[in-house]
Amino acid sequence: MVENRPWANGFAHTVLIIGVALVVFPVYIAIVASTQAPDELLRGTLPLLPGSHGIENYTQMWQSGVSSANSPSAALMLWNSFVMAMAITIGKLFISLLSAFAIVYFRFRFRMFFFWLIFVTLMLPVEVRIIPTYQVVADLSMLNSFAGLSIPLIASATATFLFRQFFMTVPEEMLEAARVDGAGPLKFFKDILMPLSVTNIAALFVIMFIYGWNQYLWPLLITTDPDYTTIVMGIQRMTSEENPQWHLVMAAAVMAALPPVLVILFMQRLFVKGLTETEK
Amino acid sequence: MQTKRMTFPGRWLPFALLAPQVVITLIFFIWPAGQALYQSLLREDAFGLKTTFVGLENFARLFRDGSYLNSLSVTAIFAVGTTLVSMSVALLLASTVNRMLRSRSTYTTLLVWPYAIAPALAGVLWWFIFNPSIGIVPYMLEMVGYQWNHRNSGSDAMLLVILAAAWKQVSYNFLFFLAGMQSIPQSLIEAAAIDGASPIKRFWTIVFPLLSPTTFFLMVVNVVYAMFDTFGIIHATTEGGPAQATNILVYKVYADGFIGLNLGSSAAQSVMLMVIVVALTVIQFRFIERRVNY
User: Fold this and answer.
1) Which residue among B11, B122, B199 sits closest to A8, beta carbon to beta carbon?
2) Are B236 and B124 in contact (CB under 8 A)?
3) Where are the domains of chain B?
4) Does 1.20.1250.20 match the CATH number of domain B57-290?
């Protein structure tokens, strides 16, 4: 800060507190709603303070879900979301590391061609080519499976570029020294390159986990079997009922938001690093 | 494009390393995109028994189709609205947080977490707050004499989805604005302060112009976000309604293809969207290299 202006500081804090309040508001309302008795929400206006039915609402949602909305227990849905997010994240990291390694540390024919082929995927978000992609997955009979949920989403131009940029900054001497000592490419990759990339991998992990967890359109199309319902999708199903049971919907919403929010809060440094670097 | 000066020899290994990425790209990206292109030139009859080649007829129809033109303008309003709201709020918050010394990291933590909320979930949360029968905001609006109802009123529905989309995106813009501000040399601001410029004057004459690369970058990213990543918000709340008032392009592709089963038209819309994405990506890459500068 350049100069001391007590009034300006007070004003700044006021602006920020209002800002934070606005950002927190929807989630606060969700928490309040998730602790009310079922009939409380039908009576007209929502109370502004948490009620006393929190534990039973969350337990009910966790154990049995809302069967009338074809929405299974939150425990199962959270597990499905977790498996899908982890499969997407690990898959993306794995294949991107390998292809960045190939592009940087080898000279081979069609190298540029492959580079551009991977680059093009940046321009084809799943929303844009949704029907033909669905047909492909259906033809491969991957509907209603974790493979169908994750594999089509794991190609990643962003991660490949990021690792390529990072590998280019690794000193030449590393490779020279490794080769003098007789290390082959795979040994170099495993024992030198991977340990050097740990921070980058972790930063991307955070971003991709959130990306995977929040997938919506894809699971909606690929899975019809309730056993594969993910939590975000399950919430949408519950809200499209004739009379949504808002106390349970909001309990599920809080549980759905918790894992990725905790990831951001506890790994904020990695999150910021991942976010700013993937967008370069 | 460069490699390392020294590389590994190997004839098959690089291909083997690339194989997983390339196979997935070919099967799930290139092939479907080709299919979309191909289907956009065909028309199926009502029973799906016969397909005929119709050339660019599907595209010509799109631009004669009132609902597609409506969707284009709805998308434009939605994208501009979301970008404006989320960027101006983020800029205000970032410039305020940037004044702080001790509380900076606390406020940052409190402001960044909505990035983690799924778009569909953001939609549901705001949908609930604005719910005409039990929501809290319509209750307050009624006291000042406004009847909020996003089930009937197109403008109410649009406002609702813009709010939900912008709310989720504020944290992203905030982080980039804050990073941009922290890379502005402190000496410039101190010099201006010595010359007697007030904080507001300093912001508009020094900070804001120097932020223009960040601002421009965020504009592109936000438009891309609003156009392609907000499917969940629309689907979980308004479903394009009322009367197509929030039927943005990505939602229309889905609705026409999966619900309307009009494959030719849906494929043509997919191709149009791909053209838009490619154009936006080119803009982003060209200008980020060159950077808007003063």
Assistant:
1) B199
2) yes
3) 57-290
4) no
- Amino acid type, B180: G
- Residue-wise pLDDT tens for chain B (294 aa)? 666 777 788 778 889 999 999 999 888 888 888 888 888 887 776 666 667 777 778 888 888 888 889 999 999 999 999 999 999 999 999 999 988 888 888 898 899 899 999 999 999 999 888 888 777 888 888 888 788 887 888 888 999 999 999 999 999 999 999 999 988 998 998 899 899 888 888 889 999 999 988 898 889 889 988 988 889 899 888 888 788 888 998 898 888 888 877 778 888 888 888 888 888 878 877 766 555 444
Q: The tokens of A114 are what? A: 């492959």
- Tokens representing B291 are 């950077």
From CA B201, how far away is CA B193, in angstroms rounded? 10
What does the H/E/C string look like for B230-278? CHHHHHHCCCCCCCCCCCCHHHHHHHHHHHCCCHHHHHHHHHHHHHHHH
**Closest residue by Cα to residue B3 from A35, A103, A16, A12:** A103
* Residue among A185, A236, A276 whose CB faces B179 most closely: A276
Taking only residues 97 to 116 of chain B, the set having a beta carbon closer than 8 angstroms to any beta carbon of chain A reads 97, 99-101, 103, 107-116
Q: Given an 8 Å threshold on Cβ–Cβ distance, is A12 in contact with B100?
A: yes
- Domains of chain A plus CATH, in order, are 6-278 (1.10.3720.10)
ipTM of the complex: 0.87
Is B18's Cβ below 8 Å from some Cβ in A? yes
How many whole angstroms separate alpha carbon A92 and alpha carbon B21? 9
Q: How much is the pLDDT for A44?
A: 65
Q: What is the pLDDT of residues A125-140, one digit of tens each?
A: 777 778 888 888 888 8
Q: Whose structure tokens read 């016969």?
A: B50
pTM for the predicted model, two decimal places: 0.88
The residues that bridge with A208 in the sheet, in sequence order, are none
Question: B151 vs A233, A237, B141, B203, B256, CA distance in Å?
Answer: 22, 18, 16, 42, 21
Nearest CA in chain A to B289: A280
Asked if B4 and A176 come within 8 Å (Cβ–Cβ), the reply is: no
d(C-alpha A69, C-alpha A239), whole Å: 8
Instruction: Of B40, B61, B43, give the one whose Cα is nearest residue B52.
Output: B43
CA dist B292 → B88, B202, B203, B210, B212 (Å): 19, 20, 18, 9, 6
Question: What is the arithmetic mean of pLDDT over A182-191?
Answer: 89
DSSP state for residue B148 in the 8-state scheme: -
Return the structure tokens found at B57: 């007829």
The CA distance from A201 to A221, in Å, is 30
